[in-house]
Amino acid sequence: MLIPVLLFIVGLVLLIKGGDWFVDGATGIAHRFHIPELLIGATVVSIGTTLPEVMVSATSALGGHGEIAYGNAIGSVICNTSLIAAVTIAVRPGKVERRSLIAPVAFFFTAAVVYSFIAYTSGYFSRSSGCILLGLFLIYMIFTVVQMKRTPQREPAAAETAEEEGSMVRYIVLLVVGAALIALGANLLVDNGTLIAQALGVPESVIALTFVALGTSLPELVTAITSLIKGHGALSLGNVIGANLFNLVLVSGISVTLAPFEIPRGSTVAGMNASLAVDIPVMFFVMLFLTVPALVRGKLARIQGIVLLAVYAAYCIFQFAM
């Protein structure tokens, strides 16, 4: 048990340092091209911080553990929203740029409806459904690249060009190295944390929806905290929304395409599969509660963070009580 605990700590250290470098690189690139931080958070940062979910879910699906691949995607969305975003909002609520928020939110709910339709109608994620989810990811990235190109950019002065090129290389290095450290740290954390949880007798389905989901969401948590400390709240919010979208279309899409699986059949609520009765509805609720007020009022309120944290606590208690 000592070695897993030590490796768990090493993973945490790598996550913290990787998150610091990743945020520096992402914000540097955003400022260099005059791109809104929320937009860069919903794309580049989100892909980097979603790498652990991709690796864990793909490996789990190929190993015949579809319940982990499925639970990790849904659980990560709930964790990202009702824990990570909630902490950021509860500590420092602020204004959001609604124009930059509309596209990621619209794409998320489109993906969530498609994902839920497959889950409720067939209960089986086939290889074709994985291709559909990956297609949504591709459409989102193309749309975002086009949106970035339309963003007006200031022409740099001749004297600034050489310095900016040097800075750009540094930002890219920070981004790549930070993403690598985040992925490695999260992998160590999840692998060894799961060993610790199994030694304590926690069921695999519960591990997937809570412990694994929390472990693979730690990059988002580290990025959120680091962004908050550095005063980049919009980057954090964009990262959470983008990561939630990628959990449904990229993480699930890759996992299902590699190895199709059925929705785990475990505990039931009122005679219905607990995942369909609780997990998916909770996912929709927390995302609606986070994004609708932001889109309507253009700002976030501390009460949103407090309520979301309460929902996450209740959700975890429910999972372990079932």
What is the compact description of this entry?
By secondary structure, the protein is mainly α. The protein has helices at 2-32, 37-62, 66-91, 98-121, 127-150, 158-199, 204-216, 218-229, 233-258, 274-297, 302-321, and strands at residues 124-125, 261-262, 268-269, 272-273. 83% of the residues lie in helices and 2% in strands.
Give the SSE layout.
Blueprint: H1 2-32, H2 37-62, H3 66-91, H4 98-121, E1 124-125, H5 127-150, H6 158-199, H7 204-216, H8 218-229, H9 233-258, E2 261-262, E3 268-269, E4 272-273, H10 274-297, H11 302-321
What's the count of strands? Answer: 4
Order of helices and strands: HHHHEHHHHHEEEHH
Rg estimate, integer Å: 19 Å
Strand content: under 5%
Structural class, from helix and strand content?
mainly alpha
Shape: globular
Q: Helix count, per DSSP?
A: 11
- Number of discrete domains: 1
Major sheet: size, sense and barrel closure? 2 strands, antiparallel
What is the CATH class designation? Mainly Alpha
CATH topology: A middle domain of Talin 1
N/C terminus separation: 27 Å
What's the overall average pLDDT, rounded?
78
* Percent helix range: over 70%
In the CATH hierarchy, what is the superfamily? Answer: NCX, central ion-binding region
**Widest beta sheet: strand line-up:** 1-2
CATH architecture: Up-down Bundle
Unreliable runs: 154-162
